[in-house]
Design goal:
Blueprint: E1 17-19, E2 32-35, H1 39-44, E3 53-58, H2 63-66, E4 74-78, E5 81-82, H3 88-93, E6 101-108, E7 111-118, E8 130-139, E9 143-152, E10 158-164, H4 180-190, E11 194-198, H5 217-231, E12 237-247, H6 250-260, E13 265-269, H7 276-290, H8 295-314, H9 319-322, H10 326-335, E14 343-344, E15 347-348, H11 349-356, H12 360-367, E16 370-376, H13 386-398, E17 403-408, E18 416-417, H14 421-427, H15 431-435, E19 439-440, H16 443-456
Parallel strand pairs: 1-8, 10-11, 10-12, 12-13, 13-16, 16-17
Antiparallel strand pairs: 2-3, 3-4, 4-5, 4-6, 6-7, 8-9, 9-11, 14-15, 18-19
Helix pairs in contact: 5-6, 6-12, 7-8
Length: 459
């Protein structure tokens, strides 16, 4: 059985609008959130097998909405190709072309049906209270990444926040209104800031790159740094008051960007201040026991995990080579989501190996920026406040008083109010969790707004 591990990853499956980009076209948009067909779902829905993709959500103005898909449908074939695993659906959808015909075979409560229609484009994000500008970031070798600048209406230069996303490859384009990242962005725009975001190479509308899941970390970092450089030249941006907000792994990316392109301040949330080899060791021991794993079993597992991680992260052995050891293969598949095709946690294995070699202490020193490090009280992925506190101590050792630590009570890795860590962990996997409705913690907006206003006043 797979063991659930929460790392510094941020995942999602999925505008008055001015389009400043000339190279990028709108991508096709299936518009569903899907999950595996578990044994219990198969029984409840009178399904003969667990093959297919269970529809959890249908997003408005999407291909799925046009085809009248419903929550509870199971997609069993796409254009005649069987769906063996729920992740087959987003993989197939990436091959769609806007305007072409699409056929989905569905199973709803044991009844088979087929729907046909045209592939719809991703709609633009709109907001009656703000201006949303679509653009692009040119990259070497004729590559482009989608960018979006959302700002208050009106002319002038605005203090600006660059939101740097975490580990995953999901697009930040047209996020649902209830998405916590969108709520943070909209909350800051309402307080007078422009907020910039961009998709990673190979995701969203971006073109010319390999799929995001296949690129290394350095390519991702170079794209974000290019985006920051371009942002500071925008006539709507106050270049003297640009801030980076790094979420999760983005909290590692932000200081590396700022070391090359200076900014006024860095805000990081849910980060590790340690090298990734050390962080992963803590995840596999401390996080698993926090989530209820048996201590003796964890001790036994670590006898395999420690040498495995050392050979993978330090010696740079590839998963195929490591999987020749039966004990390693079991750990790779059950703990690290190894797919047998060079991917761990949904990214190419070289991406994780790159993380180990990042010069993080040097980056924080060279960034020389005001720093706010935030830890959510119930952030299971970041484990504890020590990572954020380490960053604060590091920055203050070079620039006394320039870094601040803040604890955001009752908040998880995704900015949602979930209670204390103990309440959050106790609720996990219980009937109470299904009834519990966490909400975005608006105090995060208040916290970063107050901090930025103070730094804007300073020369």
């Amino acid at each position: 059985m797979k063991k659930t591990i929460y790392l510094l990853f941020a995942f999602c499956l999925f505008a008055c609008t001015a389009a400043w980009g000339q190279q990028l076209q709108r991508r096709p948009f299936l518009g569903v959130q899907v999950s595996p067909v578990t044994d219990s779902l198969a029984t409840a829905n009178r399904l003969s097998s667990t093959q297919g993709a269970f529809v959890r959500r249908v997003i408005p103005n999407s291909t799925a909405a046009a085809l009248k898909l419903q929550v509870g449908d199971v997609i069993v074939r796409v254009n005649g190709t069987p769906v063996n695993n729920y992740m087959d659906v987003p993989a197939m959808a990436r091959q769609f072309r806007t305007g072409e015909s699409v056929t989905l075979d569905l199973n709803l409560k044991g009844k088979q049906t087929t729907v046909k229609g045209k592939v719809q484009p991703m709609p633009f994000e709109t907001d009656p209270n703000a201006e949303v500008r679509y653009g692009e970031v040119p990259l070497p070798d004729n590559r482009y990444a989608r960018s979006i600048l959302k700002k208050p209406k009106g002319k002038g230069r605005f203090p600006t926040v660059f939101f740097v996303q975490g580990y995953g490859c999901s697009s930040l384009d047209n996020l649902p209104a209830e998405d916590p990242q969108r709520q943070l962005i909209d909350g800051l725009v309402a307080r007078g800031y422009a907020v910039f975001r961009m998709d990673k190479p190979g995701s969203g509308d971006s073109q010319g790159s390999k799929p995001c899941t296949e690129i290394g970390y350095q390519e991702e970092l170079e794209a974000f740094t290019a985006g920051l450089k371009l942002l500071k030249q925008d006539p709507a941006v106050d270049p003297e008051n640009v801030f980076l907000f790094g979420h999760s792994l983005g909290g590692n990316t932000a200081p590396l960007m700022a070391a090359k392109e200076k900014v006024k301040g860095l805000m990081v949330y849910g980060i590790t201040g340690k090298p990734w080899f050390e962080y992963l060791l803590e995840v596999y021991r401390d996080q698993r026991t926090l989530l209820g794993a048996d201590y003796v079993q964890v001790d036994q597992d670590m006898r395999t995990v420690v040498p495995l991680l050392y050979e993978f992260m330090i010696l740079k052995k590839n998963p195929e080579e490591l999987a020749k050891n039966p004990a390693y293969r079991s750990a790779l598949e059950n703990i690290m989501d190894y797919d047998g095709q060079g991917h761990l946690y949904g990214r190419h294995y070289t991406f994780l190996q790159d993380l180990q070699d990042l010069p993080m202490s040097q980056a924080w020193r060279d960034a020389n920026a005001y720093t706010l490090a935030i830890y959510g009280e119930a952030d299971v992925a970041a484990l504890d406040p020590s990572g954020a506190q380490l960053v604060v101590s590091l920055v203050n050792s070079y620039y006394p008083g320039k870094a601040t630590f803040e604890l955001l009570p009752r908040t998880d890795h995704g900015f949602m109010e979930v209670g204390t860590m103990q309440e959050h962990v106790k609720r996990r996997g219980s009937a109470e969790e299904d009834a519990f409705r966490p909400r975005f913690n608006q105090k995060l907006v208040e916290l970063v707004d107050t901090w930025m206003k103070d730094k804007i006043k300073r020369a």
